[in-house]
Amino acid sequence: MILSEYFCTDKSFYRRVAAIALPICLQQVLNSTMGIVDSAMVSRIGGITAVGTANNITDIAGSFAFGITSGICIYLTQYFGAKKEWEQKKVFSLGLLACAATNLLCILAVVLFGPQMMGFYVSDPAVVEQATIYLRIVALSFIPNSMVLMFAFAYRSAQRTVVPFVIGLIGAAVNCILNYLLIFGSFGFPALGIAGAAIATLIANVVNLVLHVAYAKKTRQSFFGSLFAAKGLSFFQLEAIANRAMPLVFNEVIFGFGSTLYIKAFGALGNAALESYYVGNQVSQIFAFITVGMSSAISSILGNTLGKNDIALAKKQGQYFVGISLVFSVLTVGFVYAFARPFASVFSISSPQAFADAVAIVRIFSIKIALRMFIVLVFACLRAGGDSRFLVFLDCGMMWLVGIPLTWLCVYGFHMGSITEVFLIIQIEQVIRMALGLVRYKRGAWLKNLTEEG
What we know:
Blueprint: H1 11-43, H2 48-82, H3 85-121, H4 125-138, H5 142-157, H6 162-184, H7 194-218, H8 235-267, H9 271-286, H10 288-307, H11 311-338, H12 340-345, H13 352-384, H14 388-413, H15 419-425, H16 428-443
Helix pairs in contact: 1-6, 1-10, 2-3, 2-4, 2-5, 2-8, 2-10, 3-4, 3-5, 4-7, 5-7, 6-7, 8-14, 9-13, 10-11, 10-13, 11-13, 13-15, 13-16, 14-16
């Protein structure tokens, strides 16, 4: 390996990466912090289980929106690079309409089958009732939330990530304040309990959307125009976008469902095993902000370069990102492994054996975090060039072909009783995924200028 191929000597390149990634990282940290605050407030009225159960459906709705915005912004990013403003407006409009239509269906499903959805996860009638109350209110936020996500991805595509961070900060503050006022009935407001938490979330999402629309209109953002600008897209453009966006939507939804099957298998090993897994998973979420920020920077920079039809530069930048990914992965392994015991100590674990298992799981998670971080950052290179079908194979396909069967074989076939042994073995899934991803990356199938399609 020639190190100069993987590490750029131009400091301006790293400053550009940091300028895009840091606001997104901060926004992820902010979202995590606000989530903890919300959970703490709801837990004081005994509603944490109900809200957590309802949020399973919220996550599914979010998966649809994330898949759509990811697919649309493959093109939006390249149109920014090519400086094609009318094309930007058309695909952005398409993203908003697609998010609204998809989430409208999710809202209808909640209205018609809310109790049945909650009953799938829990059997306690009281929890089902409370979860349904929360879900039917918070479902109204699905559409504005998905549109806010589209705006956020658009700014990432334009490499202006400070805008969604500032607006997100305002929205988070509104959500936090309204939670306090409406859950507990402070300062003369009605004490609405779990319904108050849902209303606060709904209002905060509407505020976010209004601020995004107002700012985009006032500053005349190049991507912002008529809501129905998408009708200017040709049939061939729509077909090309759908061919790349639909696999990402499919991947997000099926990947989310598959994740629950891991938890079901780990649960068969006992409550202590599942508790240990949750500890490790919580620790892994701490480092998600690095992956999200870097992934956005990679997709944005490479997408812009490809949109300018500078394939040679995109290839060189891809090499630099592989180098950055490798450094972050190695540092993460060392840090998490070294501080596994302090991380586990943050959680209240009564049994000495369960604590020992939790420490071991955190250390194994350090390997998973590092591998996953490297994989996701390589994914971002492939996504920038619209290689979405192969991404589905790598992400969702490897889960269902390797990860889930291997997990269930260990637990139900070989009756292995140790969560640490099972979890270590199934990291084979990550290794295979990384190897295949690197082979695909090296072949250069992702080095495409999509602005010339249609």
